[in-house]
Amino acid sequence: MDPAHIALLLAAGFGAGVCNAIAGGGSLLSFPALLALGLPPVTATVTNAVAVWPGYLGGAAALRSRLADFRPLVPRLVLTGALGAVCGAVALLAAPAEVFTALVPYLVLAATALFALQPLITKRLAARETDSRALLYLGVFAGGVYGAYFNGGMGIVLLTALALGVNAAINRLNGLKSLLTLTVSTTATVAVALFGPVDWLTVLVLAPACLLGGAAGARLADKLRPIAFRVLVIAFGTAAGGAMLLT
Question: What is the model's pLDDT at position 120?
């Protein structure tokens, strides 16, 4: 790994940490950067999953006080998310690598579109006055599958599932979403660490940069407008996905 590669990883990891702390979507920066280094798509996604895990731990710890109103739901939702993550990890590791490689451009573009629409989705969901347990568990399971298979946009998928299934304000659901993203990420990380082609040297560079970016983003969250980071992530994700489709 030459100095230019290290610099790219540090910049992408720091940027991903900042974006995750302020607006989410950091994997749309770090995952394409890993592809740009020449890592195969499956190696890139499992390496990214391991590298960003500490950020999910920090987010869940910071928002744990918001779980108080949902204590009865927590064990079942955690189990549902973990089961979905197991299925997603099995699909990623057991299927031919060519399948994931073919899907990558569309996954990146779909996650970018979901990220771009997040404010509208959140606004619409906040207006709901009913809930559905069936939608809740199906959505959390699907979010677990998606998050273990491809990390980008997982938090948005899980927050949408929670908002569809639980009649509560979006900001109150953030703690539950953070716990579920940690659950899915932990399950996927254990699976890929044991059975996946993780590039551990890359993790040693990327993970600390993600942590530093997350710490910086948490401090800047109340001072900076998330729109700037949102535009950056959308532009980067669109360019990366488009470039993959053309190659």
Answer: 80
> With 60 as the cut, is the pLDDT of residue 171 above it?
yes
Find the Cα–Cα–Cα–Cα dihedral 153, 156, 158, 161, rounded to 10°: -130
**C-alpha closest to that of 143 among 198, 188, 190:** 188
Q: Residues 209-234: what's their mean pLDDT?
A: 72
For residue 110, the number of C-alpha atoms closer than 13 Å in the C-beta half-sphere is 11
Q: What is the mean pLDDT of the chain?
A: 84
Q: Which of 196, 234, 189, 185 is nearest to 29 (CA)?
A: 234
220 within 8 A of 10, measured Cβ to Cβ: no
DSSP 225: -
Total residues found in the chain within this entry: 247
Give start and end residues of each alpha helix (H) in the chain.
Answer: 3-22, 27-36, 41-62, 74-94, 97-116, 118-126, 133-149, 154-165, 170-195, 200-220, 226-246
Higher pLDDT, 126 or 71: 71
Q: Would you state the pLDDT for residue 205?
A: 93
Stated pTM of the model: 0.83
CA atoms within 13 A on the CB side of 142: 14
CA pair distance 101, 97, nearest whole angstrom: 6
